[in-house]
Amino acid sequence: MPINLQKGQKISLDKEAGVALQQVTMGLGWDAVRSKGFFGFGGSSAEIDLDASCVLFDEGGRALDVVWFRQLKSRDGSVQHTGDNRTGAGDGDDEQIRVALGQVPAQVRSIVFTVNSFTGQSFTQVENAYCRLLNAADGREVARFNLSVQGSHSAQIMAKLYRHNGEWKMHAIGENGNGRTFDDLMPQIASHL
Fold it and tell me: Where residue 131 sits, what CATH number does that domain have?
């Protein structure tokens, strides 16, 4: 049974999954807030372009690589983005980033996942937002973190995968920010390394 993470909570991936994880998928899902139609019936939703990204850091907090909609694969191939969803339409994950944990280079100590509204809309226009971590081998959900904190922010530092005493752990960060890409969040990310 997956664990529902609270902001600031940290977990061991292998302990929660019950197996030594080799590959994980970070899924991001969201819906646009539905506007009310005439007399409260009908209505429609605007398209919201949220973008999942991740930055790979070394022990000293130096960014080594980034995976996002303009670079879908890390240089070493261990991290891969499945592609950009520009609307949030449909059920399930709208964007995914896959991480082959055993192939992540040893100098990478942490991988920070962010979400940004590339079109600049605030999270007041987003609902049902979440990130979840899946065991890529069988598709089972290991952990889920609710991101639906509506507010005037246009970005969020979602979570961090990091190595600690030879195992991978996850930290649910959930810190709001602003900016169209991960690069705008780099000063905030630094405090979580």
Answer: 2.60.60.30
